[in-house]
Amino acid sequence: MGKSSSSPSPSSSPLPASDIEKGTKMPRPAHHHFPPPPPPKQWFSWVIPLIFLANIGLFVYTMYVNDCPRKKPKGCTLYPLLGRFSFQPLKENPLLGPSVLTLEKLGGLERKLVVDDAQGWRMISCIWLHAGVLHLATNMLSLMVVGIGLEQEFGFLKIAALYVLSGFGGSLLSTLTIDEDSKISVGASGALFGLLGAMLSELITNWTIYANKCTALFTLVIVVAINLAVGLLIPHVDNSAHIGGFISGFLLGFVLLIRPQFGYVSRRYIPDGYDVKHKKSKHKSYQYCLWVTALILLVAGYASGLAKLFNGQVLKNVPF
């Protein structure tokens, strides 16, 4: 016969009690440290490549509409090779592109048409047009170098808004400073300078998360200064569009490209049972101040500029 056992089964055994004399201690609760959040995933960049393709497609369409051989086939640049898509004579357009009349027809920026004929849409359409192959190639190279990295970090919606609003800001300042007899203005330069301005303000507002702060700031300031200097030194360049786009992008960067401060963990990554009393706030107070200040300045600047423009005022004695 088997011997019965009076010992309790493992499932019914009581928990060990703490013995003060023997120094037995109960297990301590886990430390209330926040677990590290998952590494941020980069966005897939598709808006910047789409803008790139749209600009190229519109330039091809511009040359199709231009149709240089229809008027003077012998004078068109590269006519035997390109046919209908050949460029205007180099004396007329050294950038290898269409005529001024074609650019005006398709939405180039001209103060008289914007103010007198109420064609405000030209302030947006002009940023998608280019004066020539050289103009287009320079801008698209800058777009891909600067824009893809920004979109991967902040997403398509913010960068698309930044691009368009910066381009509008460049067009607004350009329209306020050009004379009635000046040629029309086209190009994505204002929007591209807006991306550079946003990179600078993003570095300032997210200062706490950068390791090599001074190096990053110095490098970016040098890049911005070189681009602005090139625009000021080259003749027939709409520097007011560059400045307007840069200022708009600089202010928009404080609004759109704000990041959480270092050490912040989203509540969805904190498991149950952790103490969240000392959880870091998402943003620092100076980030909120910059956000509010930049938004006020941006709205006030756009409103003031539009009021001056449609009241027929012109900004004179500007240094650019």
Short description:
By secondary structure, the chain is mostly helical. Helices cover 52% and strands 0% of the residues.
End-to-end Cα distance: 108 Å
| Structural class assignment | mainly alpha
Counting DSSP E segments of at least 2 residues, the number of strands comes to 0
Helix residue percentage: 40-55%
The SSE string, one letter per element, is HHHHHHHHHHH
**Overall mean pLDDT:** 81
Major β-sheet profile: none
Radius of gyration: 30 Å
Beta strand %:
under 5%
| Number of distinct helices | 11
Q: Show unreliable segments.
A: 1-26, 28-32
Tell me, briefly, the overall form. Answer: globular
Q: How would you describe the overall organization of this protein?
A:
It contains 11 helices and no strands. The chain is 52% helix and 0% strand. The chain has helices at residues 47-66, 79-82, 100-106, 111-115, 122-125, 133-154, 156-177, 189-205, 213-233, 239-256, 285-310. The chain is mostly helical. Helix 7 packs across helix 8. It starts with 46 loop residues before the first helix and ends in a 10-residue tail after the last helix. The longest helix is centred in the C-terminal third of the chain and has 26 residues, at 285-310. The chain is globular, with a radius of gyration of 30 Å. The model is unreliable at 1-26 and 28-32 (pLDDT under 50).
